[in-house]
């Protein structure tokens, strides 16, 4: 079986933009506190059926948007703190759009953040994700891995989880490997090369202003 590194590298790109995916550059460390979540490789035939799609909005909505984003991507944080809130109010909460969120892993902190967000289950996922993006400039720049994880734990506690629960999620090696395999299948299957990226009723789009987003959604609703 072909073995893959867990870590993806990322570099900032200009413009409205996003973060571009590069080759597997970084090597995972051996920090004990996040030990199992540092799982380095995954088999190509990992069964990913246990990974739940995190979605918000009416399952029968006429427009489905799949968002590909990284919790360590600043452009993704900007989207979630701005256009996403407008999108939710105008289209998701009104039953016009169903949003599916798919994580992309540039690095270990992005994976750890994903595991914390998923630790609360489907009901809490988007609320925790919002807190993670809101605090991104703090936890993602905390420095050492232990400091980053402590920042993520703090967010998890704000969402009502205790340290024992959070540690169990972060140290779940099987879940980490399965998430990485799932991420790879989705990203490669949809040819995602930067974040945030979107599939609007199956058509791939890069990051854009809310006005442009709205125009594309309205075109689908009118079509």
List the helices and strands and how they pair.
Elements: E1 10-12, E2 19-21, E3 54-56, E4 63-69, H1 74-81, H2 83-92, E5 97-103, H3 108-119, H4 121-134, H5 136-139, H6 145-158, H7 163-170, H8 173-189, E6 194-195, E7 197-200, E8 203-206, H9 210-222
Parallel strand pairs: 4-5
Antiparallel strand pairs: 1-2, 2-6, 3-5, 4-7, 7-8
Written account of the structure:
There is one protein chain. This protein has about 220 residues and is α+β, with helices and mostly antiparallel strands. The chain contains 9 helices and 8 strands. The chain has helices at about 75-80, 85-90, 110-120, 120-135, 135-140, 145-160, 165-170, 175-190, 210-220; strands at about 10, 20, 55, 65-70, 95-105, 195, 195-200, 205. Strands 3-5-4-7-8 form a 5-stranded mixed β-sheet. The protein has a 3-stranded antiparallel β-sheet with strand order 1-2-6. Strand 1 and strand 2 form a beta hairpin. Helix 3 (about 110-120) packs across helix 4 and helix 3 crosses helix 7 (about 165-170). The chain is globular.
């Amino acid at each position: 079986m072909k073995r893959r590194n867990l870590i993806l590298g990322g570099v900032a790109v200009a413009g409205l933009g996003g973060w571009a995916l590069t080759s597997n550059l970084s090597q995972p460390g051996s920090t004990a506190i996040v030990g199992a979540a540092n799982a380095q490789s995954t088999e190509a035939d990992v069964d990913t059926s246990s990974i739940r799609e995190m979605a918000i909005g009416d399952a029968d909505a006429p427009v489905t948007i799949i968002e590909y984003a990284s919790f360590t991507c600043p452009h993704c944080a900007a989207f979630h703190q701005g256009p996403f809130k407008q999108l939710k109010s105008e289209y998701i909460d009104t039953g016009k759009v169903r949003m599916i969120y798919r994580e992309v892993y540039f690095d270990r902190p992005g994976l750890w953040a994903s595991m914390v967000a998923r630790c609360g289950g489907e009901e809490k996922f988007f609320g925790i994700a919002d807190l993670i993006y809101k605090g991104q400039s703090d936890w993602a720049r905390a420095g050492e891995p232990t400091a980053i994880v402590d920042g993520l734990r703090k967010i998890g506690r704000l969402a009502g989880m205790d340290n024992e629960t959070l540690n169990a999620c972060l140290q779940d090696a099987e879940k980490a490997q399965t998430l990485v395999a799932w991420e790879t299948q989705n990203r490669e299957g949809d040819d995602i090369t930067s974040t945030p990226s979107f599939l609007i009723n199956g058509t791939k789009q890069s990051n854009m202003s809310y006005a442009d987003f709205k125009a594309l959604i309205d075109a689908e609703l009118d079509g």
